[in-house]
Write a structure and sequence with these properties.
This protein is about 45% helix and about 15% strand. The protein has helices at about 5-15, 35-40, 60-75, 90-100, 120-125, 135-150, 165-185, 205-215, 235-245, 275-290, 300-310, and strands spanning about 30, 45-50, 80-85, 105-110, 130-135, 155-160, 195-200, 220-225, 260-265, 320-325. Strand 7, helix 8 (about 205-215) and strand 8 (about 220-225) form a beta-alpha-beta unit. The N and C termini lie far apart (about 50 Å).
Length: about 325
């Protein structure tokens, strides 16, 4: 079966799921010609999922199209999720909930600051109900208590895991893979042999893995870890990919650790902190291409992308693709 036929069959599987229109799609696929000239390597591409259009853009919009449709199908009146103070996910859940007439409830890991900045400020502007918890574990436990309380009061809550990293959410990046695949085909170009994406809660990479497997595309996915390994094991990504394939009715699909690489050298001190390599990548993208990265996610995945380009790790015929998953608001925190 051709890749185009496989893509059409996968698109048909996705059409069985309800979906809210929240993202601007397709997002641009752009050539990074100035970085190519600077690094003496070509071709280099960027998939601009920072331009998905929900609030300040980013990858969560694609996931929330499916997640919020599921919330509406269940007749939810409120949506509950967790995240850190500068969580793009928490912000976008609040925005999507307001767009669809639902109440957003956020359990934030950390202390209530005297002066909110960045995404937390936006959460407040959106009128989200915000609770604080000292650790991730307590935030999840707190979210479950809130869900139970809301349910008892007839509020019909819908709980979304951090990052929207659950099978329904990962469908957004199965679809994104198909979209990117079609863009390269329309240009008459072979898909890059390597693709780089930030690896936080795992849902984006899991969806891309399923899209790749369903289309039998010849490309290598590289997840650049932005959280400590203890918080997200590679096996968790595989489990999520497998569950997503099963949700699509493809329990026969085999996805293994040999299907992707995880780059562990760019996390830095811990999640949420900037790194020297990330700062250099931010400067390079801004000054060479006029594209802004964020210190938490895309600066770290961008750093891996550029370092591997400089070390001649890419196939000179097809090059590499960088998934810009958004988060720019973190520059203003």
């Amino acid at each position: 079966m051709s890749e185009a036929s496989s893509r059409a069959r996968t698109a048909a599987l996705l059409e069985r799921f309800p979906r809210e229109t929240l993202a601007v799609r397709p997002t641009p696929l752009e050539r990074l010609r100035n970085l190519e000239a600077h690094l003496s390597v070509a071709p280099l591409w960027v998939k601009r999922d920072d331009l998905t259009g929900l609030a300040f853009g980013g990858n969560k919009a694609r996931k929330l199209e499916f997640l919020m449709a599921e919330a509406k199908r269940r007749r939810a009146l409120c949506v509950v999720t967790t995240g850190f103070p500068q969580s793009n996910h928490a912000r976008d859940v609040a925005v999507a909930a307001r767009r669809l007439g639902l109440d957003p409830v956020l359990i934030i890991v950390g202390k209530d600051p005297r002066d909110a900045t960045g995404n937390l400020l936006l959460d407040q502007l959106l009128g989200a109900e915000i609770h604080f918890a000292p650790t991730v574990r307590r935030a999840i436990a707190g979210a479950l208590r809130v869900v139970s309380s809301k349910r008892l009061r007839g509020k019909r809550p819908y709980f979304i895991l951090p990052g929207g990293s659950m099978p329904v959410g990962a469908l957004g990046y199965v679809d994104a893979f198909l979209e990117m695949h079609a863009q390269f085909e329309a240009m008459g170009r072979e898909m890059p042999a390597r693709q780089y994406v930030a690896l936080g809660s795992g849902g984006t990479l899991a969806g891309l893995l399923v899209g790749r497997a369903l289309t039998s595309a010849h490309t290598r996915l590289v997840g650049v870890r932005v959280v400590e390994k203890r918080l997200l094991r590679d096996a968790a990504v595989l489990r999520l990919a497998t569950r997503t394939a099963r949700l699509l009715g493809r329990a026969d699909l085999r996805i293994s650790s040999s299907d992707f690489d995880v780059e562990d050298d760019f996390v830095g001190e811990r999640y949420g902190t900037s790194t020297e390599e990330g700062d250099l990548a931010t400067d390079a993208f801004a000054r060479r291409e006029g594209i802004f990265l964020d210190p938490v996610y895309t600066a770290k995945s961008g750093a891996a992308f550029l370092e591997h380009a400089e070390s001649s790790a890419f196939d000179p015929r097809t090059g590499a693709l960088f998934w810009h998953t958004g988060g720019t608001i973190a520059l203003f925190r």
